[in-house]
Design goal:
- The chain is of the alpha/beta class.
- It folds into two domains: 4-177, Glycogen Phosphorylase B (Rossmann fold); 191-365, Rossmann fold, CATH 3.40.50.
- 38% of the residues lie in helices and 19% in strands.
- The chain is built from 14 helices and 15 strands.
- Strands 5-3-1-6-7-8-9 form a seven-stranded parallel beta sheet, sandwiched between helices.
- Helix 12 (320-328) links the parallel strand 14 and strand 15 (331-334).
- Helix 3 packs across helix 5 (135-150), helix 8 (221-231) packs across helix 13 and helix 11 crosses helix 14 (351-365).
- The longest helix is centred in the N-terminal third of the chain and has 21 residues, at 61-81.
- It is globular and about 70 Å long.
Length: 378
């Protein structure tokens, strides 16, 4: 029989393109059910058949839920009427999607794995959307147990996340596969060779970069407060924000109200600019909401490591990011609102110490390469 794999993920980003391509190297036929493909340096294998469904919309809460539900229903219908799916991979994007494995396990005898990017219902509970112990929370938890029991394999993206998942299934069934980055695409770059830095006029500055989603749960005001403290003094530090999100308007207003000449905001950059934008950073900001500790690992962490940037992580004590930075001496982890600590770290880090941290980041990034994709095919 033709070896076939069917992959379900509402948003196909760079990591999942690598995963899909890995399946294409093993299976005769690969079907990708998705809402959108994000542009990246890596091209999707042309043998992969793409079936587009509802696109995920994140700009409004009700649109998120609506697009989640619609993609789930469309995927349900696809499984219902398609005769043969082969090996299935369900991604927790949308979070309801793995439930399909339980729904069809008896009637179609499907063989499926689950990839968990975010742990639900814990994420909803921690963000205050539902209460732990509520009917919805308990129902979701029961469904997770059914899905995990019937899944062949379960993948998560951090050890801390694995502990959350393990309460509903034996730990031996769970495999941690950390996010990765193409270290040949994202790599250290001298400022004099960086056209992006020259274009925005920061060639002679030490750049502190935040790149990515500026969501309401990210503590980014601490970065601007630090910039405010450093704005009056004569130094060569500049704070660069690249991206968009619900918090961006407030951050821009704070910059204008405080006349911060040492802060620049830019929109998301095209994929071909990423090596230059990430390569611009001497220091890279990774902000993880206190209510999300252990439930996700920002993929931009690995981009910044590959670019050879010293990491400034804003997270609670005991997070996996804090452990990663401390163990490998590639930056600092601070708690939300610790403005003075961030300022002191920036101003007191010597050029020699900074260069060593940047080298340590690049070395560490070699542990998180596309070679990790092999674990999905074992």
């Amino acid at each position: 029989m033709n070896k076939k794999a069917t992959l379900f993920n509402q948003v196909t980003g760079p990591l999942f393109i690598d995963i899909a391509n890995a399946y294409a190297s093993k299976y005769d036929e690969v079907i990708l059910i998705t809402g959108s493909l994000e542009p990246t340096s890596t091209k999707l294998n042309p043998k992969i058949k793409i079936i587009l469904k509802c696109k995920y919309k994140r700009n409004k809460g009700y649109l998120r839920i609506f697009t989640w539900l619609l993609f789930y229903i469309q995927s349900f219908i696809y499984i219902l009427f398609e005769k043969y799916h082969g090996k299935i991979l369900f991604v927790s994007n949308p979070p309801l999607l793995p439930f399909l494995g339980s729904n069809f396990y008896g009637s179609k005898n499907i063989d499926f794995d689950v990839l968990i990017y975010d742990v639900y219902p814990d994420a909803l509970s921690n963000f205050g959307y539902i209460k732990e112990g509520s009917y919805l929370y308990r129902f979701w938890d029961r469904m997770n147990k059914k899905v995990y029991k019937k899944a062949q394999r379960i993948f998560t993206i951090s050890e801390v996340m694995k502990k959350f998942v393990a309460r509903n299934v034996e730990s031996s069934k769970i495999k941690v596969v950390y996010p990765w980055v193409d270290t040949s695409f994202i790599k250290p770059m001298r400022k004099k060779d960086n056209s992006f830095v020259e274009k925005i006029g920061l060639s002679d500055k030490k750049v502190i970069l935040y790149s990515g989603n500026m969501g309401l749960t990210h503590d980014l005001k601490i970065v601007l407060k630090t910039a405010k403290k450093m704005n009056a003094s004569k130094n060569n530090f500049h704070f660069l924000f690249i991206g968009d999100g619900a918090q961006k308007k407030n951050l821009l207003r704070y910059k204008e109200d405080n006349n911060l000449s040492n802060v620049t905001f830019l929109p998301y950059q095209d994929p071909e600019v990423l090596p230059f934008s990430f390569g611009s950073a001497d220091f890279a900001i990774v902000s993880l909401s206190s209510v999300a500790e252990g439930l996700s690992v920002p993929s931009k962490t690995f981009y910044s490591l590959a670019a050879g940037s010293a990491i400034i992580a804003i997270s609670e004590k005991g997070s996996e990011i804090e452990q990663l930075i401390s163990k490998n001496d590639c930056g600092i982890s601070i708690q939300p609102n610790e403005v003075s600590i961030m300022r002191d770290f920036l101003t007191n880090t010597s050029d020699l110490d900074l260069e060593q941290m940047k080298k340590n980041s690049r070395i560490l990034s070699k542990q998180f390469t596309v070679a990790n994709v092999k674990y999905f095919l074992k």
